[in-house]
């Protein structure tokens, strides 16, 4: 027990040092960080304006979403997407080509810990801008928030589980760079699938029934739409608990897949003399 506790404290210490290091690194790329942040804000605002216009053209609503509901959905989606997204699948091709990965493999800790710390550092910095932006959008678009205390609290856990699931899924996708140096096609295909089945393009309720059923069984809804729906009070207590089970189940499956791909990829990377 003491040994495992000591290892945990040591790992937390490593994370804290990595976090501070990556925080300093992020400060050096302020312009790039600002560009990423603008993109994170502009996309949901565009969807919000489009769907609000459609709702007004159809008498004030589309399905169960009125203009205020669309505003609430996309403002919350902006926050959840920011908290869960990663960019690592765009970087591993460079890691392999440049030899950066070879250096990371020589370190005494798994490279994933560096990527987690970097991701958290970026989000900690940019949230200081994103939260005020969300408040401005709330003032400008007058969203309709109808939630309960248990949904608000349950949404926090849903976001944490979504962060874990999405990070592991996209880190697994990044490992395609072990086998090919042209990973953009995989990334673009993943992005399109995520766009439709995660509720990022539009609330899943507005899609045809077959798409909704498929979304329930794929991992993408549980990365984005589920926390958003929960925070907005659109789910029952039973649906919340079921959603947690889907998130945990997919997280376990993706973790096992990640382990398999990583071990196979490192063996291949070492075999070719990189």
UniProtKB/TrEMBL annotation:
Tagged with keyword Plastid: no
Alphabetized InterPro entries for the sequence: ABC-2_transporter-like
Transmembrane segments: 27-50, 70-90, 120-141, 147-168, 244-262
Highest taxon above the source species: Bacteria
Key words of the record: Membrane, Transmembrane, Transmembrane helix
Signal sequence range: none
Pfam families in the record: ABC2_membrane_6 (PF06182)
Keyword check for Methyltransferase: no
PANTHER family tied to this protein: SLR1174 PROTEIN, SLR1174 PROTEIN-RELATED
Full protein name: ABC transporter permease
Source organism of the structure: Litorilinea aerophila
């Amino acid at each position: 027990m003491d040994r495992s506790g000591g290892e945990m404290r040591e790992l937390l210490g490593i994370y804290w040092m990595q976090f501070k290091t990556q925080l300093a690194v992020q400060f050096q790329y302020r312009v790039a960080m600002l560009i990423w942040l603008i993109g994170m804000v502009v996309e949901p605002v565009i969807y919000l304006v489009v769907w609000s216009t459609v709702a007004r053209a159809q008498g004030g609503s589309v399905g169960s979403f009125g203009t205020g509901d669309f505003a609430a959905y996309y403002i919350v989606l902006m926050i959840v997407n920011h908290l869960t997204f990663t960019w690592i699948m765009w970087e591993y091709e460079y890691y392999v080509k440049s030899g950066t990965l070879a250096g990371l493999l020589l370190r005494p800790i798994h490279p994933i810990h560096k990527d987690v710390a970097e991701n958290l550092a970026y989000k900690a910095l940019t949230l200081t801008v994103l939260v005020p932006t969300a408040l401005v959008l709330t003032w400008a678009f007058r969203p309709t928030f109808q939630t309960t205390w248990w949904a608000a609290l349950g949404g926090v856990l849903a976001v944490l589980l979504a962060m874990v699931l999405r990070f592991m899924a996209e880190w697994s996708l990044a490992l395609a760079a072990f086998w090919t140096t042209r990973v953009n096609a995989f990334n673009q295909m993943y992005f399109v699938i995520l766009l439709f089945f995660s509720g990022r393009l539009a609330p899943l309720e507005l899609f045809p029934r077959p798409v909704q059923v498929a979304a329930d069984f794929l991992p993408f809804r549980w990365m984005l739409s589920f926390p958003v729906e929960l925070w907005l009070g659109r789910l029952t207590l039973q649906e919340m608990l079921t959603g947690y089970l889907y998130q945990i189940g997919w997280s376990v499956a993706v973790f096992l897949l990640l382990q398999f791909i990583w071990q196979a990829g490192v063996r291949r990377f070492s075999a070719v003399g990189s």
